[in-house]
Amino acid sequence: MARTRVYRDGVLAAEGIPVAEVSDYLADPETTVWLDFCAPTEADLAAISEELGLHPLAVEDAVHEHQRAKLDRYDSHSFLTAYSAALDTDGTLLVSELAAFITDQALVTVRKDENFPVDAVVARWDSAADLAKNGVGFLLHGLLDHIVDGHFEVVQSLDEQIEELEDLVFDERPRYADMQRRSFALRKSLVRIRRVVLPMREVVNTVMRRDMHLVDAELQPYFQDIYDHVLRASEWTESLRDLVTTIRETQLNIQGNRLNTIMKKVTSWAAIIAIPTAVTGFYGQNVPYPGFQTTAGFWTSTLVIVILSAGLYASFKKRDWL
């Protein structure tokens, strides 16, 4: 089942019309039509493809998944591929692919799954109904604006998670296993969102080109605002990738420094303990020596142990090894 909307003279005229009746509405040059399909086959798109003169290569790309974000130009229409992004409750990045055919009077969206929030796009169109008189450009603006805002929200959320990770790095009792897991998960999410965000710069820039005839003078500032958001999200994503790498390196350096401190302490105490071991071992010889089997010999060995141990302790303490 396809979801449809018809705008006439900038006003929502009909909704939920059958696909077979779309051609009747398109006969009026003042009419703009939106059709939405979810996980269709090429056969499902055959009727509308013939009606709108859609290129077979574009129809094939619309049906198959994992296309790169792009905007292709054909004789009778343009073909758009983009990805929405959102974070679920446990912080996992959810990406949903969308294809769109853009003609002079129609916007046909093809969702690859149910995860794409098409209701939010419709709500955005309803909230900016005063722009509906701009036809397909109005529909395209609402669609791209929602997608780019979703990218921006994801990047902002990832930034907040990275700040939390920064605080854990300098914790008195850091949980290294948890930090490693979170840092790698964040890096993986950043790599995925980067693949989604970066191509959108070229897509939006191409949409705004005058020779594409997709954006009129009234909508130009609105698309420029989308482009600014795309640039900010792209630059933000790049800086966060570098930041996660820096956090990981800082974590390893701090962990190495703490290990060195522990090793210095262990080595220092081992050196101190070695003194009484050496002295008592020397006095444990079964041969006569000065103080052998006498009280004076016992006190002499004890005094040697205390003086040398205290001397080593003071020396290590001065060097901040203890």
Description:
It contains 8 helices and 7 strands. It folds into 2 domains: 3-254, Beta Polymerase, domain 2 (2-Layer Sandwich), CATH 3.30.460; 265-318. Strand 1 and strand 2 (11-15) form a beta hairpin. It has helices spanning 22-26, 46-52, 56-63, 118-127, 136-169, 176-207, 220-283, 295-318, and strands at 3-8, 11-15, 31-38, 70-73, 78-87, 93-102, 106-111. The protein has a 7-stranded mixed beta sheet, sandwiched between helices. It is of the alpha+beta class and 322 residues long. The longest helix is centred in the C-terminal third of the chain and has 64 residues, at 220-283. The N and C termini lie far apart (75 Å). Helix 4 (118-127) packs across helix 5 and helix 5 packs parallel to helix 7. Helices cover 57% and strands 15% of the residues. Keywords: Cell membrane, Membrane, Transmembrane, Transmembrane helix, Transport. GO terms for molecular function: cobalt ion binding; cobalt ion transmembrane transporter activity; magnesium ion binding; magnesium ion transmembrane transporter activity. Its main location: membrane.
Examine the coordinates and then state which fold CATH places here, giving the name of the CATH topology of the largest domain.
Answer: Beta Polymerase, domain 2
Number of strands: 7
CATH-level-4 superfamily name of the largest domain: CorA soluble domain-like
Shape: rod-shaped
Secondary-structure-based class equals alpha+beta
Give the spatial strand order of the biggest sheet.
2-1-3-7-6-5-4
Please count the helical segments.
Answer: 8
Q: What is the average per-residue confidence, as pLDDT, rounded to a whole number?
A: 88
Keywords: Cell membrane, Membrane, Transmembrane, Transmembrane helix, Transport
GO molecular function: cobalt ion binding; cobalt ion transmembrane transporter activity; magnesium ion binding; magnesium ion transmembrane transporter activity
Organism: Amycolatopsis echigonensis
Membrane topology: Multi-pass membrane protein
